[in-house]
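Here is this case:
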Amino acid sequence: MVTQALRRLFYQASIGDQSYRFLFKSPPPGEVVSIDCETTGLNIAKDDIITIAAVRIKGDRILTSEAFEVLVRPEAKIAPDAMKIHHLREADVEQEKPIRKVLRDFLYFIGSRPLVGYYLEFDTKMLDKHILPFIQIGLPNKRIEVSELYYERKYGDAPPGTVIDLRFTSILADLGLPNLGQHNALNDALMTAMMYVVLRDMRKRNVRVSRERTRPILDNVMGA
């Protein structure tokens, strides 16, 4: 938390393009945004983004009609292993815009809302590679990691020696959520949004995730 606050203060003082100062405004009350990226590989230094997706969450409602999704032409070649995962080929993206052409729309879409993600650090580091030269700062938004929310609800009171399972599919199963098909950026952003809504509700009600894998019912979180 302290690191996030210090980073935000540093970025606020360092921003180059003043037209993006809206990133430091107070976010709309009760709103966050779930994001996900698909990439050419897992090497932050050498690989690049292929797809960016984001969906806003307002209170307990996932605003599916306001989703953001864009394919971009990466600066790196798509690794064969990555292609097997997300099924995107060079031919699928060669006619798309480079990421610098879509960053403005993405930044205006997320605004100053906190970012929600699954292993969010990877996505934000990939994005910051392009955002930093674009506006001279990285993303200043607060970050909310769903695997940490899940860990706290399931393993926060676990005895020593408990096996920890933070896999995406395991979280879906424990929360009784549908698998919409992983490694599609929009699907992953939507599923992460559902995880966030359920886990936040459980925390609010002081309900823990059973280590015996029970399935609570997801009730009406998808919205227009």
Residues 146-223 form one domain. The beta strands are 31-39, 49-58, 61-63, 68-71, 115-117, 143-145, 222-223. The first helix runs from residue 2 to 14.
